[in-house]
Amino acid sequence: MSRVEPWPYTLRELIAGDRARRTYDYDHTCELMGLIASVQTGKQYTRDYFHPYRAKQAEPLKLDDPGKAFDELTKGKG
């Protein structure tokens, strides 16, 4: 962990730098987690599955049967 002299930077720059550093650290860790999970389960995992700062890709909806898709979306709600 390297220390940064904060005085020449604005608060916005410090926050952006902190977020960039945490994202970088999570990239490394989540890449290893994805590799280990893929080997252990036989499924394909990427770092985005475990990464808290990267957006998750939504599963595309299959609308071959709209009634079934509606039931899946509203399952357990009310």
Q: How does this structure look, described?
A:
1% of the residues are buried. It is built from 3 helices and no strands. By secondary structure, it is mainly α. It has helices at 11-41, 47-50, 66-74.
What descriptive keywords fit this protein?
elongated; 3 helices; mainly alpha; 78 residues
Helix content: 55-70%
End-to-end gap: 49 Å
Global mean pLDDT:
84
Estimated radius of gyration: 20 Å
**Unreliable runs, pLDDT <50, ≥5 residues?**
none
**Structural classification:** mainly alpha
Contiguous helical run count: 3
What is this structure's SSE topology?
Layout: H1 11-41, H2 47-50, H3 66-74
Produce a short descriptive summary.
The protein is 56% helix and 0% strand. With 78 residues, the chain is mainly α.
